[in-house]
Design brief:
The protein has about 425 residues and is α/β, with parallel strands linked by helices. Helix content is about 35%, strand content about 30%.
Length: about 425
Amino acid sequence: MGKSIIVVGGGIVGVCNALSLQRAGHSVTLIDRKAPGRETSYGNAGVLSESSVMVLNNPSMLRALPRLLAGRSLGLRYSLSFVLKNLGWFIKFLSYCTPRYARAAGRALRDLQLSSLAQHKAWIAEAGVGHLVRHAAWVKAFRSEASFAKYSAELALLDEMGVNYTIYDREQIRQMEPGLKPVYAKAVVMDDTCGVSSPANLTDAYVGLFEAAGGTVMMGDVSALEQDAAGWKVTVDGSAKGADHVIIAAGPWSSEVAGWLGYRIPLAWERGYHLHLKPGDGPQLGRAICDMDGGFAIVPTLQGVRITSGVEIAERDAPKNPAQIIGSVASAREAHDMKEVIEDEPWMGRRPTLVDSLPMIGPAPRHPGLWFNFGHQHLGLSMAPGSALSITAMIDNQPAPFDATPFRPTRFAI
């Protein structure tokens, strides 16, 4: 018998969770303060990855830490006051930088991403939005042989996880992407990774499937969660809405929502920016290019050429600091011809990151009927469907499509 379920959070993770639950026969309401997919999920590189298996806190980060802390890298900017305020979290984060953990996390991420990509393809076909999709759509590009050599540990992990990729030299890069200037010495093309030309349009398509089958989307501010004998009550704009189950999928706000019930979630956030530029007159890119030296991506989208920045570590709601994205745009112009910037100011989003760089997927330990589905950091689009299928299977007491044990909430004392 179908249950009444509320999903708190309308990003790609919440949308996929709502769609999966609705398809399993449940009555689902999706709640967010904005239209679905217009917060953190809006500003990514549009990559549907099955190859993003190396966690951020890996052994190479320890070796690069002195350079990163110097603040000269476009890939990472940070607020010293924020780091010092949360020093315990960062020390714990760095404690995971071991080869053993990197391999274990890589296997878990690979399984989750493979499940997600398969479900993405099924929903994309059903929604009739195949025109948004690109194949072999993720390229990691290196400006020197020296920077490529530093990628050897990740290549070894890709091999261990069975990821298909192709290495290109300078001339092959030119033939593959004539729109790139000859600044890259090497590139790694992820052969099975897909991409979309508009993450927002993809999210809208999934919302369309959800609503067409009877799902409800509600816009409003969630201010309270309460459990009683009848189940759950979610307060939205001052009014209570009841449900049998509640899924917290509120991205960087998830720890705040869970905190209302006494949970202490070891969640931080990676702030990121993007700007769109008008395409130049020369050949256009056919896939997303990740500049591994600069930590930014150059992405062809329906809105223009999107430049996405690296990571900014700062308070979640601190004022924007455009220096990183401005530097990224300047560096991107060295690689691809583009015209003027389209927006008046950069977009900024907050990517939710747990201290071990894995999402939290599963039941809340002290409240039956409450479920956690958040912490997907910069891979929400790539991992949302698999996370949704896992939560749905748990609610229905069915086997999950992959081993979800590494993502269980109880791996932390929360």
